[in-house]
Design brief:
Elements: H1 5-35, H2 37-61, H3 65-87, H4 93-110, H5 113-118
Length: 122
């Protein structure tokens, strides 16, 4: 089956985000050394998210069935991290709304019948 255009876009954006996330992690760990345990934990979560984004990019590009599951997990994790950032006071709710809305739209898109079928999940 041919890859849907939206999946191609998500795969490319996930790859870019994963690479940028990996580039940001050393700086976050450096801040964690000064800023404490919360920043260090956020750096670890960022590292995991970056690696998972790269894996999702590959899985989405090649339409692997596990790519769909990983995509769902990544965007749910992103929403959870956003909520934690608000609850801990590291972000305002207004600053998080856009990222949560985008993650919710992507979750909706990944659950559309055509996309699920493309990943072999019908």
């Amino acid at each position: 089956m041919q890859r849907p255009t939206g999946i191609t876009i998500l795969a490319v954006l996930a790859a870019i985000g994963g690479v940028l996330g990996l580039l940001a992690v050393p700086g976050l760990f450096a801040l964690g050394a000064v800023g404490g345990i919360i920043i260090t934990l956020l750096a670890l979560v960022s590292l995991v998210q970056a690696v998972l984004a790269l894996a999702f990019a590959y899985g989405a590009w090649t339409l692997k069935p596990w790519g769909w599951t990983l995509g769902i997990a990544i965007y749910i994790l992103g929403i959870a991290v956003s909520v934690i950032l608000v609850l801990t006071g590291y972000q305002t709710i207004g600053g998080i709304l856009i990222s949560v809305a985008i993650a919710a739209l992507i979750l909706y898109y990944l659950n559309t019948p055509d996309v699920k079928r493309a990943f072999g999940r019908s």
